[in-house]
Structure formats: structure tokens, C-alpha cells
Records
---
Amino acid sequence: MSDGELKNPVFKNVTRYATPDERDQVERIELDPKDLDGFMELLKKGLIEAASMHDAAVQGCMALNAELSIRLSRPVYNAETDMVEELVGTERVRGSLRASKVMKGDCGPEKSGSE
């Protein structure tokens, strides 16, 4: 059996782990721009939906603390165990967003002096 040949043919469509030499040659990972744009739209919708829970705040303008958890995974064939494993990358991002209420009948954000 050659090095590139999988022991278990059931996993033939699953990628293998890169060798250390192959990993040394990787400069970066690029995400598909269209896929990334789609996820950014989902993120934007999620942030807006989460912010809508703050309509009970007295303030017209507010700072919201945001914490986003990112998890990217994919199946990878492990030749040593002859099994498919899940390779997972995670990241937690924190920041703040300014938000303002738009009241019914208003043309824009509330202009009250309360912060």
C-alpha cells in the first residue's frame, strides 16, 4: 500500500492530516469570499436579533458587550487509528457595540438625553 492510499476505503473522500513538512509550507488559510460574506450576513442578523432583547432598557443609546464564539470543524482521516476524527478550531471574540433605540413614529434614533 502506498503512502497516499487509505487503509480503510470507506474514508476515501475524507482528507488526511498534513505531514509536518506539508504544514511548514502553509502560509495561511483563506476563506471563500462568498461563503465569508454569507456568514457575515448571518452574524449581522444574529447581532440584531440579540440586540432586540434590550428594548426594555431605559436608555435610548447604549453600549452592548458582545462575545462571539466561533467553531470551525471538519472530518479528518487518522491513518494511525484508521478512524475519522473531527478537527476543530475555536476562537472567542469580545467587543462592544453602540446601539440606539428607534421609537415608533420616529425617523431615526431616539434623541433623549438619557444615556
---
Amino acid sequence: MAIEQWEIRPAPTSRDSQRHLLLVKGKMTDIQRLIMKLGALCGRPRKTEPPFDYSLYLKELSPIMRTNVENAIKTVSSPPASPAPLSPSKSKPTIPEPPRPKLEPIFTQETQIPQQPPVSAARETAVNVRSNKQIGISLNPQWSFQSLMVGPFNRFAHAASTSVVENPGSMYNPLLLFGTPGTGKSHLLNAIGLGISKKISQENVILTSGARLAARVSEAGASRSLDEIESLLGKAQVLLVDDIHLLFLSEMNESFLSKMFNTFLDKNKQVVLTSVYPPKALESLGNSLKLQLDQGWSVDLKLPNPAIYQNLVQRLLSLEGLEIPEYAVQDIFIKPSVSLSEVALYVKRLKQMKNLGRGGTATERLGMLMVEDPGSKDPLAEEELSQARSFRFLPSSSGSPARKFGFFYPKESEPQKQWMATQLSQAAGSLGIRFTGEEVFSQEYDSNQTQGIPFQVGELCGRHQVEMVFVLGPSPRSELKSREGELLHALRHILESLEVRLGWVGYSQLKTPSAYLKAVVDVF
């Protein structure tokens, strides 16, 4: 049963003269679908008196937004719902109908595997990082073989991984697990670490990432403390490196890393690597390290079929205690372009919003992160850009966190970057966050340069010792635009290894409030 009847009544307050009350007759499942479409515009539904079932307040309902609400109700209703009769005195003015609202695509396209990773570009700079950081990452006790779903998509990789646990340093050495993001490479790598650590001391198992490993070695080289890392690695029996394709090489670290990998293999110590690229695409990296990746074993992981994938998504949501209706899971998460990595990111965002005091159901919070307002695809007007030019973040007050952050944006987009800054401040305010701190760098990049950008961002963040960075995506029609998903994937992993939080806004999302909400939730 769809929405049978509805009515919008004025309900102004001293703070919101345009507040209205939406009265709806229908089932709660239909109300939830409507809330998903309206997002932050509406409040919580409440039971009300007949002939209606529920009521919810609509905040700052302008005439155009009223038409937006009516369109949303029509999309939820099948057959179309009819409004309750209105008295002649309440006749609605004729308003040109705006474009029908639609949910913003919240996920990047699945990263495609190019023929060659940007290894040569990675050699240009060595990333500086803050001191006193460990080379290893703690093993996640939840990512075990027992919690891994095995099927045709990962059966060979699972068999090779369990063989490594049973006989480390033998046949599968090195073992390379490769596949697109979200296929379970990191889970398998962690499971190997957990399995082996049960047989030997966990101190003898080092789990790290390509970007983290290279950064720590470069830092140690600069501080002349390589002997400490050499001693740590010398005691280890197993080296697990996630995202080996993000191992950025420089004069500071190449010799040490080459010696380290080859020493492990010469002494029959187990090495396991993961990559989004197949072995052939890693030949340049292997040659630089004097490392023969083909002397071991390479296994690819595929994406599961839709039924298994839905099971995995439901399991992930259930483990985190998130109750999201099945129709929402189907509409939002069960798509070919959505990886489990992206689902996990949204789980993290939903939990963070709750921690920031945004109550309500998980479905309501998800709606806030997805809603796209009418006109969000329109270009920024000169007046809007002009108003943003003078914006500056206020310095941190006494007793507040002394935040240091930076901006990275396409060439000739400084006005757009300023607009982005104003919207981030507003989004933070909507979550009760006073966005203050020091903007320590504002750097443009060439979006026609298809390689090396993630490493440039990492180098800047390390050099300026920032804790968060905001990146405006490639400009339209630029060469990097077609590889935006790959860029974002690399940025997330590199910055995570440097313990820098990333707030990302796509260029086409400059007027989309939910994009700024996601960026703020990701960094605070």
C-alpha cells in the first residue's frame, strides 16, 4: 500500500517562518522511503490523529522546495497519492516545476585496473611524516578466516592463504593477492596474520601498508635511525604489506626497501602482498626493488555474485548494529558500482554522525548523507563566488583543539575552493561543530596530470604536519576526471597510512550540501 493521502499545513515558529507540517496517511515503510528522499528537510515522523497516520515537520519550506516535496511524494506513491482537499483561501500559487529531485550517487565507480600503476611518478618525492609513528598496523581480530565468506570468487586465494599459515616461507612466497577494491584482499591479509600469530609470537608478524612502509623508512633515513627499523624487521618472520602498489620510492628509501624484501625471501621468511594491479603492471616496481614477484604465487580475487554480495552487506550492517530497511539496502548498496569498501565507509559515517549527536534512526542519518537539493547541479553564480572570497576560518580559541589543515584543488579553481571552505564551515555548524583552526596550506594541482597526484597530497600533508586535508576533485573535462575513482582510492589509502584524515568533495558536488556533510563527518 502506498501513501493514500497527504496534506501540507503552515506551522511557522519565531525561528522558522517557513516551517510546515506534512500529514500523511500510509504505512511506516512508505514514510521511511519518503524521509530517505527528503533528508535533512524533514523531522522525525510522529503518530497523529485520523484521517492521517503520521505527521512530520518540514523546515524552511520555500515554494520551490514545496514542489520538491510534492514530487518526492509522487515518486513514493503508486498509484500517485492525492492531496487532501484544501479550502479556496489556501490555494497554492502556480510555481514552475523544477527538475525532479534525485538521490546523489554516493559511491565512486569501482576502480578499474589500469595497465600500469603510477610507480614512476611515485619516485619524485618522499613523503615526510610526523615522528614517533610505528611501521606496523595492529591486526584486526574480527578479520579472521572464520568471518570470511568463501566462494568461487575467492576460493583459490583462500586456499593459498591457508597454505601460507600452515607452511609459511615455502611454496607461496611471496604471495600476491590482487583484485579490485572491496574483494576482500585486506581481510585475507589480516586473516593470514592472525593465523600465523597463533603459531608464533605476534611480535614476529608485521602488518603494514605500502605507503606506510615507505613513509616510515624515509622518515628513519632522514633522522638517521634506519638501524631501529632494520632491527625490528630482522626479528620478524612474516611481512604482510597491503596495497604494495602505493609503495612510493625515493632515493631515501629504495635501497633499504630492496634489501629488506630480498633478505626476507632469501631467508625463507614469508612475504604476502596485496594490490589492485595484476603482477604484470607491477613489473616496474619489482625491477626497482630487484624483486621477482613471479617467483612466488599470484592469485586474483573476483567480485561475488549479487546474492552473495547482498548477504555480505547485510552481515556488515548487522555486525555494526545498524537497522536499515531492505528496500534501502537494495536501492543504495546493491549496485555493481558499490564495493564493500564503500559500504564500510558509510557504516563508519553513520556511526560518527551518531557520536556527533545526530540522533534518529540509521535510515534518517543515511538520508541526510544522500539527499541532493534542486539546483545542486547548476554552476556557481558569480555572486556566490564573490561572497566566498573573503571567507577565513577563525583561529582555535583557548581550550579548543588546535586543528591544522590544508586544501588541494584544481588549477584556476581558487574561487571554487573558497566556496568549498564556506560550505564546509556551514556543514560543520549543522552538526554542532565549531570549525576553527589554522589553514596551513592551499595548493592547486594539475588535473590534466594523470599520475602522482596522491603522492603530492601526501607529501604536502607530511611537510606541513596537518591532521586533515580537504580535496576538491578534478575539474570537468580534465584528463584526471575519467580516473576520479582511482584517484580517490589512492588518496584514501595513502593518507590513512600517514594518519591524515581526508575530506573529499567532487567538482560536480560544489552545490550539494550532503557532499560537505560527508566531508566533515570523515574528518571530525
